[in-house]
What does this fold into?
Amino acid sequence: MPSQRGFTLVELLIVVVILGLLASVALPKLQDVSTEAEKAAAEGVFAAAQSATTTNFAAVRAGRTGANPVTNGLTLLSAMESTPHGWSGAGNSLTFTGNSGMIYTISIIRNESDTSKAMLTKSW
It folds into this structure.
């Protein structure tokens, strides 16, 4: 009778257990990286919003057609070159809910006036 080659059930179970342990160690690290990426993207949107308030302030002072003072979330979004993916404007803020459930908020704490640009703050 020829000998059969292959893995025993115990060997296969050991491999499955080892793979399960590796996955349990790697998954939390992957979730941390995802959250950090969301935070970095939100920081980029905040920087773009600050830049937009400066550019918009200059455009309004120069009398550029279509430029409106930044006084709420919608006027802030319109001052930005493009709407950041997933962000929405309501009231005096822009908000984004990340995949992790974390809410990122950029708020206007001082409206644009004749003498100063809008002032923003972030919350995350």
In short: The CA atoms of residues 5 and 11 lie 13 Å apart. The two ends are 69 Å apart (CA to CA). The chain has a mean pLDDT of 92.
